[in-house]
Description:
The complex is a heterodimer of chains A (62) and B (669).
Chain A: H1 9-22, H2 27-47, H3 49-56
Helix pairs in contact in A: 1-2
Chain B: H1 6-13, H2 21-24, E1 27-33, H3 38-46, H4 51-58, E2 62-65, H5 73-82, H6 86-89, E3 95-97, E4 104-106, E5 109-112, E6 115-120, E7 123-128, E8 131-134, H7 141-147, E9 152-157, E10 171-175, E11 189-193, E12 205-209, E13 216-226, E14 240-250, E15 256-261, E16 264-269, E17 277-282, E18 302-307, E19 309-313, E20 319-322, E21 326-327, E22 337-338, H8 342-350, H9 362-366, H10 372-395, E23 400-406, H11 408-416, H12 429-435, H13 438-456, E24 461-465, E25 471-477, H14 479-485, E26 514-516, E27 521-524, H15 537-553, E28 564-569, H16 570-573, E29 585-589, E30 592-595, E31 609-611, E32 618-619, E33 629-633, H17 647-654
Parallel strand pairs in B: 1-23, 1-24, 9-10, 9-23, 11-12, 25-30
Antiparallel strand pairs in B: 2-33, 3-4, 5-8, 6-7, 10-22, 11-20, 13-14, 14-15, 15-16, 17-18, 18-21, 19-20, 24-33, 25-31, 25-32, 26-27, 27-29, 28-29
Helix pairs in contact in B: 7-17, 11-13
Amino acid sequence: MAVKIKLDSDLYQRVKKVAAAAGYATPEEFIIHMIEKELSTLESAETDEEITKRLRGLGYLE
Amino acid sequence: MAALTAAAITALVLAPSCGDEQTATRQLIVLGFDGMDPKLCEQMIDQGRLPTLARLRDAGGYRPLGTSTPPQSPVAWSTFITGTNPGGHGIFDFIHRDPETYFPYDSTSRTEPGRWLIHLGKYVFPLRGGKVVNLRRGKPFWEYLTEAGVCAQIYRIPAIYPPQKAEGAPFCCLSDMGTPDIRGTNGEFSYYTSGIIKKKFSGGGDPYPIHFRNDVAKAAFYGPPDGMLAPPEGRKARPQPTETPFTVYRDPTEPTVRIVWQDQEVLLAQGEWSDWHPVEFEMGPRLAIGSLDAGPLIPGSTAASICRFYLKQVRPVFELYVTPFNIDPLNPYFPISVPDGFATEVAQSIGRHYTQGLPQDTKALTHGVLNRDEFLQQAEIVRDERLKILDYALDHFESGVLFFYFGGTDMVAHMLWGARHPDHPALTEEDHQKYKHVVDDIYEEMDGVVAKAIGRFPEATVMVMSDHGFETFTRQFNLNDWLSENGYAAIRFPNPPPDSLLNIVNFDFSRTRAYGMGINGLYINLKGRERDGIVPPEQKQMLMDEIAEKLLAYRDPATGRRVIKEVYQADKVYSGAAVALGPDMQIGYDRTFRGSWTGALGGIDQQIMSDNTDAWCADHCIATDLVPGVVFSTRPISLAEPSLTDLAPTILTEFNVPVPEQMHGRSVY
């Protein structure tokens, strides 16, 4: 099931311009790619929580 | 664990003949005092407070000892162990980064998970075992010794976890810095409180709620994650912690409690520390085929650990501190010694003791769970245990090399060296008066340790060494804020919440040319090396020179003082096959400055400079020439400016073992 997300028209114009310059077929393709890229980083950060906590367990780090 | 009987180990340790006839009876004792500082030693010697070290100095057996770049303990101890600079041993900082992910990791060891997983119901069975891998390169000096027939006994040496066997002559070893607790961490205490828990701690321990009904409370100890337990449906793969329930019975009128778990119980009065007690964590069932390649992290049926309790307060708010669950030396769940049974042999002789690396609980003090007096009580427990192990070591030493490590000179100094100086932002005048003598007192105790070793072995060569010195730490510099402000780094989340994961590796690498990671490290975001590298290799040198020049010109806006004394470029200070693994540049801070807490994991503070108000009030991760260590010896030292790289060649030369060409130094005698 697809959902719609509203974007500010100024932002959409910027997206449209950058997406075309970067060679994306559509602004939507560019947006999906960006969101997926960001999500994968944040999701992997979640699994890195324990590693970070362990490193912060060293007195030298907070 | 391998079944070596106590008698067999004793026979091994007490082997009557080590090496050829010429070296069979030679004795070299090396006492390693982490962080022992030459300035303070010289001052206390002049005051007549270190009589043993004074005798050594007066007989020509003393020099400041050049340290590693950077002067961080795992870097420096790896240099001592291998006789090479970091370009040879590959340890450049506590923290390294993976150029593929940019994510930081522990530089000294890596835990590799089990492979080939089978899912059966709620369990996941690895068919090949996980293991812990030591990432240090280079051959330790003791391997050259034992191969040449010289015995080596190495007690609690840092940066070798997991300890490795050595071929040839009898060898035994206990590991220290890097040795995990039963959870596999650097040591995580547990803090049970009936008070309000505002937030979790950032690392080093966890707070847990506990509530009484009719003076009885039930809670659980949390042990190692059980890799066999599959995560709940829809959750990301994260091992579930094992639990051992316990009950606290509070006296209705007196400030005392009884804590009961498994077949154990302990009675405690408020303000009292318990002895060590065993706590077992039940792990998931083992698949029979798993034993084909069972590494040390394959869970068995029970993970044996030990802990001590400190009853901080009974009423109105209940507060109970529990030490990290240490690996039980009487039944080690992970390998902590060579031979496997050696740790048990020692524990059977002197009793249970801390087995984790760096056991002084600095994090409990940082998080306010222990106050300074309580921290010092805990550090004294560590010291007393270490002195018992020293007695064991001296009792069992006959010939060859005996190395023995004390970490209290470093860990306590991190928390209380600042009290030696008035006006530290983390300490009050009252703190200054109350604690200014603490580090000096430890130095006096260590002088007694040296006297004991010399007294027991008057014919031996006794060497005292430290990996670096010390300096107070009052102001912190965030390299990543500086790089951002100067246009070298682009920050992804400019306003990250405190302690947020968003502030770990907080860069937009598509627009970042340089980034800070580790306590002293600076990396160029190099095209072809880093995943999203943007700096072409031919521009790297120019960029490094430009950044170095600006960093050296930077001044603390609060005082106008220079913050950075040296900027070391890797290819100029390192040599060896591992140079490419480390940072491109190392920042050598001036006295009283250090890299910021958040910057070390690639984060920002939203300001370049700030006061260090942390209980961790002193440090040594600064310019190399500002914090040399010490070397004392019962024999005169002829080398004018010895350095850590000279000690491994010194030890080999003492036993007529050829110094390998990859070692950079020469004998100090």
